[in-house]
Amino acid sequence: MASEIRNPQLWQDGRLKIDWVRHHMPLLNSLEEEFKASQPFKGLKVALSVHLEAKTAYLCEVLAAGGAEMYVPGSNPLSTQDDVAASLVKAGLEVHAWYDATEEEYNAHIRAALAAGPNIIIDDGGDLVNLIHNEYPHLIDNVIGGCEETTTGILRLISMNKENKLKFPMVLVNDADCKHLFDNRYGTGQSVWDGINRTTNLIVAGKNVVVAGYGWCGKGVAMRAKGLGASVIVTEVDPIKAMEAVMDGFKVMKMTEAAKIGDFFVTVTGCCDVICEDSFMNMKDGAICCNAGHFDVEVDVAKLREIAVESHLARNNIMSYKLSNGNRINVIAEGRLVNLAAGDGHPAEIMDMSFAIQALSALYLVRNRGKLTEKIINVPKEIDHEVATRKLRYWGIEIDSLTEKQKEYLD
């Protein structure tokens, strides 16, 4: 099947973006050279649905350098960058994605990638895995296994596995230490505020920032908001995480109370209906809402549209909704991932670690083809340690190692 992209003529702009991140992703550089020599994915088809911007494109090229036939759909209707998609097509990869796809177009792109009969699936949010089980069960026997990039996707996998519906092994990439400790915390923390700041052009210092959810992503968003001079309020449903937020120096309260004083609202929970009608009606005039969780269900934009008396485009990528009380609520990027739908995603150096974990996990699946009995698989510790060791080496940092006596003592 031929690629489906918006504008093939944009490929040069996309190539500039990919080449820029390539210079800042030394882990993938080294893996690309190793894969070129060993060709571990030769003859295998890889379907990869991760937010299609420059870092993801480079991961696709690294896998292709190892012999993989790549089939690349989008991972979110607003995160695909058309110039990057065009550059991958120019490089000979099959791509089905464009920016601002309708729900029908987005699903058609996912189906097109699956129709190729992939052997490896690399997913972000679980759409590929979910669809192949529901609509393409005849292709499941082709699948060696897959890797899942994000918390939301892992929740879907665990649910499928509990019901005995998951038919092939999936590596939980998001749970690797070199992924969630850095990507989720430092990557999300920076990229969320990159997206908010470039879209709103408003100051953060002196404002009240409400962060819904205090997992690793929420910790990063709150930390960066504090660094920008905001007063940070955390909302949580987990009492232990709420205690963490208090001890980290943040105020903790219910969303309905936080709604009354917040200026910026960022949801990072992986759940639905986090900001609902009650909260909207309590918000100040001009409050700004955005979401950094995978799906656009955390801020109930559908309900906001329903209760608004009027709405208009207030600024590029910001919709303003006027409520019956006269207050205006502003939503960035339709409630979709603010760091990708309104920005360029995580920094290249962060994604270098996450995507090195992805590439090595895919290699692990290939090397252990037919040997894996469990359907839910944690990233092996040796992969985590390999990525960390390589990263420290590129930073020029050496660390101590245990002596034999110390190992005996710890044992």
Structure, described:
The chain has helices spanning 11-22, 26-38, 54-65, 82-90, 103-114, 127-135, 151-162, 177-200, 216-227, 239-247, 255-258, 277-282, 301-307, 338-341, 348-367, 381-394, 404-410; strands at residues 45-49, 69-73, 94-96, 120-123, 145-148, 170-172, 208-212, 231-235, 251-252, 264-267, 287-291, 310-315, 318-322, 328-332, 376-378. Helix 9 (216-227) links the parallel strand 7 and strand 8 (231-235). 45% of the residues lie in helices and 16% in strands. The protein is built from 17 helices and 15 strands. The termini are far apart. The chain is globular, with a radius of gyration of 22 Å. The strands form two sheets. Strands 9-8-7-10-11-14-13-12 form an eight-stranded mixed sheet, sandwiched between helices. Strands 3-2-1-4-5-6-15 form a seven-stranded parallel sheet, sandwiched between helices. The model has no long low-confidence stretch (mean pLDDT 96). By secondary structure, the protein is an alpha/beta fold.
Between the first and last Cα atoms, what is the distance in angstroms?
56 Å
Report strand %: 15-25%
Question: What structural category do the secondary elements indicate?
Answer: alpha/beta
Strand order, main sheet: write it out: 9-8-7-10-11-14-13-12
**Uncertain spans:** none
By DSSP, the count of extended strands is 15
Based on CA atoms alone, the radius of gyration comes out at 22 Å
- The overall pLDDT average reads 96
The total count of helices amounts to: 17
Report the principal-axis shape: globular
Biggest sheet character: 8 strands, mixed
* Fraction of helical residues: 40-55%
